[in-house]
Amino acid sequence: MIFEKIRTVPRSDELLDKAFRRGSRAKSGKISYNTKREAEESMIMTAGNILSDNLANVVRSFPSFDMVPLFYRELADVVVGVDDLRVSLSKVEWASRKVREIARMHIGRVRRREDPKIVRQSAVGRMSSVIGRVSKDLDFLNSARNVLRKLPDIRDEPTIVVAGYPNVGKSCFVKLVSSANPEIASYPFTTKGLAVGHFTRAGARYQLVDTPGLLDRPLGERNRIERQAILALDYIADVILFILDPSETCGYIMSDQENLLNEIRNTLKWCDSAAHRLRDRGDCHPLIVKLPLCSYPLFIGHL
Question: Do residue 186 and residue 294 come from a single domain?
């Protein structure tokens, strides 16, 4: 999956500790054979290179979102915010360049015969200040990295997206018929992200996507959990399997559930043509399924 290669983003204190420890070792190695001036220069160069290189590696490990497939770009925007990511990556890239510039400038001062100890202390202070300015950005990028790496691997396979109100039994159904193992509980919004499972039929493999529950309300009022479901319906669904709970055990009346079904029909214009193609192939028919893992029958039909 496209986000799996993003490296762990170090904290600012981890970066500084790593850089200055190695810088101190480089300085100690020089004192035995060279002048103290060269030793201080070696420490500044080593610490600056480690800080600059590590910051640059953070930026390079994130993919260019202009090159990311549209579904994953939109999904990343929902779960972490692509604009926020770009701002933080830009700040970290600036810090990488700035640290290298500080190191070069202070090495020049050492070579111009200024007091090497005072120059080294100045370099350490300024580099630490730069890293401190991007500390929150590094923390945010690592949190974003942890979220992005958990996004499901959606493959180019026939895809069935399961939708419906919260707590109607979507996850129960997906767990029963596919390899997915979503969390199941008797309260709404148990599913907080997309879960993917697979099953085979007549030698063909199908992808089944469990989505968070949707409520019958305008898109602008939907939360981040719901918007993941909308993206799955809009971008990756070949078939939408909409689950209704006529017993209303889920906590929502049938008229609201039917309104949501009609909203999805009206919003996703490809549904009618997709349904006609499936009916022409004889693959489309309503189902009534009683799931033994659930306490009520589920009436299932696709669009």
Answer: yes
- For residue 198, being part of any structural domain is answered with yes
Domain boundary among 117, 148, 179: 148
What are the phi and psi torsion angles at 205 (to 5°)?
-100, 135
3-state secondary structure of 301: strand
| 103 neighbors 49 (Cβ within 8 angstroms) | yes
Pairing of strands 239-244, 195-201: unpaired
Find the range with the poorest average confidence among 38-52, 224-238, 261-275: 261-275
Quickly state the pLDDT bin for 105 (edges 50, 70, 90).
very high
Whole-prediction pTM: 0.77
199: containing domain = 159-302
Mean pLDDT of the 106-127 span = 92
Which domain-ending residue is among 148, 175, 202? 148
Query: Same domain, yes or no, for 166 and 298?
Result: yes
Strand partners of residue 301: 242
